[in-house]
Amino acid sequence: MELRTGCKRLIQWIPVKKRNWTTIVFLAMVYMALGYPFPALGQRTGHGSEDSSMGAALAGPAKIIVADDSSYAPFSFMDAQGQPAGITVDIWTLWSRKTGIAVDFSLMEWNAALAAVREGRADAVGGLFRTTGREAFFDFSQPFFTVETTIFFHKQILGIRGLADLQGFTIGVVKDDSAEELIRQKYPTALPATFPSTEDMVRAAVDGKIRVFVADTAVGLFYLAKLDQADMFRHTATPIAANRQHTAVAKGNAALLTTVQQGFDRIDEKEIQAIVQSWTGRTHALSLPWGIIGFCTAGVASVVGLVIAWNIMLKRRITFSLAAVEERNRQLKDSEARFRALFDLAPFACVVSDFKGRYRMVNQNFCKLLNLKEQNVIGHTLEELGFSLTGTDTGAVKDELIRLGSVSNKEVTVLTPEKEPRTSLYSGKIIELEGEKVVLTATVDITPLRQAEQQRRESEYRFRAFFNSNPEGIVLMSLDGKILDISKTFTKMSGYNASAVKGRHFNELVPDVHHQKALHTFSAIKSGLSQEKSLETALICRDGRELPISVKGWRAADEKSAPVMIGVFIRDLTREKNLALENKNLQKQLIHTQKLDAIGTLAGGIAHDFNNILAGMIGYTELCLKDEAPAPDNKRYAYLTRVLEAGHRAKDLVRQILTFSRKEETVMGVVAMTPLIKESIKLLRATLPATIQIDQNISARPDTTSGDPTQIHQVVMNLCTNAYHAMREKGGILTISLENIRLESGRKSLSMEIPPGDYLKLGIRDTGSGIPPQVLDRIFEPYFTTKKMNEGTGLGLSVTLGIVRSHNGLIELDSRVNEGTRFDIYFPLANQAEAKSPARAGSLPKGEGQRLLIVDDEFFFMDVVRETLGHLGYQVVACQSSLKALETFRQAPGKVDLIITDQTMPEMTGVQLIAEIRKTGSMLPILLCTGYSDTVTEQSARHYGINQFLMKPVTTDDLAWAVHDALHGRKEKSILPEPMEHPAEET
Predict the structure, then answer these.
(1) Among 503, 575, 597, 789, which is least packed by CB within 10 angstroms?
(2) CB 77 within 8 Å of CB 13
(3) DSSP readout, 749-761?
(4) Among candidate residues 740, 758, 741, the one with its CA nearest the CA of residue 701
(5) CB atoms near residue 321 (< 10 Å)
(6) What is the pLDDT of residues 881-920, one digit of tens each?
(7) Which residues, in sequence order, are CB contacts of 202 under 8 Å at separation 6+?
(8) 194: three-class secondary structure by DSSP
């Protein structure tokens, strides 16, 4: 009865399939051999006096939570009914009865239990050893009993007496256990493998994953017995540590520690010994009933008989085992002989080394690799031979080898004594050779392969850079004319992508009328004949249009001079063709422009001199008038007044000449066109005859432009005066209109050109006689007029042209004889907010860590802007390449708050970069900086999706305010366009 009761506690956690008589007999032998009696079921020695030893309840919490290991039998574990059980649980249960404080047990993985107390989810650790590392997190009570820790090792391993004998072994320990800290502190070269619990660690040992582990003696024996593997592992006779068991609370919780310690002070040492004895069988000098003694005597006799039978059985097993060992030794010798033969014959470098890296064996290929003799290598490390491993992954390879026991095809770099890097593929495995664990390594030098790959990549990069950046389209074809590849320029030119044309014959892209000529040209190229002239033909683009091109090719050959492919350069002749067709008009415009420039220069010089003369005439006349009385009969006063009036008329004439020659300084500002035109119409109504009707259609909203109101008024009056002269004989209708218009593409007229953008269109139309074609080309020449004597100076239209040009505008003209004439003048639209504001007072605005992306191929400008904005409190990322900036934005669009880009850059212009960003749907603010651009102006910036337009050089004040306004969405500064599906790109 006592035998069954004593074993019940230890075998209740052994799986049913393991609960056989062998296990029970083994446990009985352990107990009887040690002289331990078996307590009765449910008996706790020393508990009978608990009631008499109870004291008054302690002051403290009503309940505490005790955390401990859930698989640390027999100290703490979950029993078959899922309830906490074990020595530690019984001691704390006794503590609860002594103190009157309820105890809740929370058993879990060991490191989780420690974390629960550290983080306040539990109040105390049930029992643990005191270590230096744990003192940083816990306060400890006085110890209440001692537990021995020992090394368990597989029975095939010999010679292990302590930690110093574990070199080269992977040692199993429980994570955050005191054994792990002890091993890492005293033996840093050891190789610990951590497990969440003792049961998991013992299972790993039984499964062969580890062969050595460190555990408390009673706990290790329990789980080995539970897994029916007690005879497979031994443990050292001398423990590596005798640890005193404490309880602990979180660091700084002095009040709780005091309550815990007071409770333990009420527990007698004999009571604790009785609990320990009830679980482990350890005895005390106690009187036992004679019945139990008789039973024990009979039990000992039974055990002696079992031991004798067991010894006979073991002897037979040993005989068979010795024969198996001899056979195994013979096989090992044969295996080692084969290993050495393969080792020496391996076509790559092989070595065997210890865990410190000292070479035990090397083959000839390894000696050739190092250019050393075998006797100079054995016993040395790689570093002692002058070589060194480099690269951040070298340590990871070593760690993986130690952790997993093998690595395969890891790329490492070795520096030779001459500091030459050599790249190798490294494979290694931990093996047992002659009873000792060593590292077998195989190394293949792949330096030539990597160098060849690098050269190939560089060659491919150079080819692709030339292939795709060439301004002419390139097509690679097979010898029979089938397309192999096309460049990006050809794609842009034709609209085809590579997948759409690969495998097609080039003649499929050529109109039928050019087929024969193209075939002759390709045959000549294929034959290697030099092509002196380019073939002019046409290309059928993807959209069906025919593009005029020139083709010039070459034959590509291999290293044996055998032809392998044909390459052709394709040049777009559209511009040349258009230029040829427009050559006559361009020559006429050039002559006209030269004439205007010459006359303008002459007129300007004359006007300046004449203005000086007029200044004296008007001044002296005004002095004379001061001395004359304004009497009706004073002829001198009347004559001088007439002279002064003539002087002022001459002054207005000089102003027209200076405006025409563009030498007069104009005052530019924001002009509201509607009131200016209405004022002109009011003046015209008073001067025009009743036969001429004035119609007005003024609908522009907004209606502001940047210019000189006096000059714009002069444009309106000059054109309306000309319209009056064309209709004065028969009468007619003078129509004046003002409307908003957006140009999606640029326009050219009369040697003037305007980019896309928003404009005010001023239209002045008459129903008069029209302008004859023979004089239409001369009407803007200074002093050219068809009017009668004293009806005009011939400067009206030339001055108008000069004013419109100076306002960055455009004039379009349409005139038909006897039908009338129409003038359309385009003025750039300017919002009232775009008026130049005075310098802002106060300190510069600061950033709040916003992330800015700067793109500029000029390093110094980019660096200055980056430093300036950095000091202002922004996070700045700078790129010298627009392509790299686009890639950076696409990878993390949400990490960019503002982009500042240059316009003129080699890979992609600022406008093209902005267009690509807008295609993603992003509406983040963008600033464009440029030193000069005839494509982008402040007026056309809206069209391109630009929030700010700054001219270089940019001052700190301008830059700081521009960034601040763009980030904070100042409406008076914003010129962000309406969302567009496909923003225009600069070509």
Answers:
(1) 789
(2) yes
(3) ETTEEE-SEEEEE
(4) 740
(5) 12
(6) 999 999 999 998 888 999 999 887 888 988 889 989 988 8
(7) 213, 215, 220, 223, 224, 227, 229
(8) strand
